[in-house]
Design goal:
CATH architecture of the largest domain: Orthogonal Bundle
Number of domains: 2
Strand content: under 5%
Helix content: over 70%
Low-confidence stretches: none
Number of helices: 11
Order of helices and strands: HHHHHHHHHHH
CATH topology of the largest domain: MetI-like fold
Distance between the termini: 16 Å
Protein name: Sulfonate ABC transporter permease
Mean pLDDT: 89
Organism: Methanoculleus taiwanensis
Family: Belongs to the binding-protein-dependent transport system permease family.
Membrane topology: Multi-pass membrane protein
Keywords: Cell membrane, Membrane, Transmembrane, Transmembrane helix, Transport
Amino acid sequence: MKIRLHSRARRGVLTAASIAGAIILWQVVAEFVVDNRIILPSFTDVLFAFLSPSVLGSLPNDLATSLLHFGVGLGAALLIGIPLGVGMGWFRTMDALADPIIEVLRPIPPLAWIPFAIIWFGLTTQAAGFVIFVGAFFPILIGAYTGLRGVPKTFVEAGKVLGCDTDLELIRHIALPAALPSIVSGIRVAMGVGWMCLVAAEIFGVSRFGIGHKLWVSYSLQNMPNVVVYMLILGFLGIVIDRLFRAYTDRRLLRWRTGEVV
């Protein structure tokens, strides 16, 4: 127990030292090397921008709007990507039918879908969610597909011996639990891509609020400290959601992997 507490304390000190060092370096470079807040705002410029009424006043609405867009896109990607990836990974016929279409669509950048998002959904939440969906869908699909394809044959044979007679039973009790690490990794990658797509999804004016929308408006006004503020908010938002997701999956879904590596 003492060793674990000492390790956590040491890690906390190293994290704090790393952040403090980065802030000091940022401030020195911005103040004494660049000396131009449009090219590189200093840490204090960004801090004062964050505390300004123009940012704090609308921050709750901006966060709520962006989380809604992100939730719509990621939710749709989960609902479609996981079942499709599982089906393609388990059934050869389904793989043969869907794989050519997936491989043609997968390299198309999510931003290329923006014109169709506007035409199909208008300037709505669904349009922003669709762009995020396109970015998040393929990592989730690939994670589920790879996980199912990587299930050891001995697991499947053991499942049949233990009474799993149908494909549905084998997927439910054998393949899906074995593929969970790959599926979880795909979801984490998808969330990162989804945050990247959020800015583009909100640029084309689906709402007056949203972190991506405010970032673009700040850039248009050459208010670069505000741009950095919204960039950092996106980064922290992504970290918080990723940590919550990791904590849930590690404790509830992947407890059996504890201690595999360290």
